[in-house]
Amino acid sequence: MEWKKQKKIFSAGRGWYSNLEHPLTLDSTGIEKYVSFLKQTFPLLEFKCWSTRQLTNFHQHLPLRYTTFIYVDRYSMSDVAEALKEQMPDESVFVHPSLRSGESLSCEGDRIIIRPLLYDDQQTPESFFLQPEELLVDYAIESERLMLIDSTEFRIV
User: Fold this and answer.
1) How many independent structural domains does the chain possess?
2) Which residues pair with 95 in a beta bridge?
3) pLDDT tens digit sequence for 45-78
């Protein structure tokens, strides 16, 4: 691998290569308050979290409001939602909204969506944040499901 020796390409893991030396890290400052609240309130709860705020630097246009997604065990979704509503009354919390209710998610300010945890993460089980590739897949699905952004804007991201 001559290009690796010349530092033109770098290992991206799993047999892939990239021209970026360092892996992509996303800013998690907008969602740390949710993570710290959930860790304190539900210390044994396994969850993952991401927000559209983490992708702001990659958008062509700034979103009107941000959406935070919290993935928890299916049986804990309502308890987590109630705790978030009590602690953060200014936030709009929705539990597993469907495609049909996508239009009814209009609200003032940011919103929190609680979804069932589907990740089996052996690589970083101690991390409460999604990896960039996981986040992009979820963003594509949620953008279509909840009309977060249109498909043209998503291609830019």
Assistant:
1) 1
2) 114
3) 999 999 988 887 776 667 778 899 999 999 999 9
| 76-96 mean pLDDT | 93
Is residue 14 a part of any domain in this protein?
no
- Whether 84 is in a domain gets the answer yes
Q: Looking up tokens 């928890």, which residue turns up?
A: 72
Question: Does residue 8 fall inside a structural domain?
Answer: no
In a domain, 1, yes or no: no
In 45-110, beta strands by DSSP E: 47-51, 67-72, 92-95
Q: How many CA atoms lie within 13 A of 135 on its CB side?
A: 23
The whole model's pTM is what?
0.79
> CA-CA distance, 157 to 153, in Å (whole number)?
7
Helix, strand, coil distribution of the chain in percent, nearest 5? 40, 20, 45
How many other CB atoms are found less than 10 A from the CB of residue 93? 20
Range of the domain at 141: 24-156
Strand partners, 47: 72
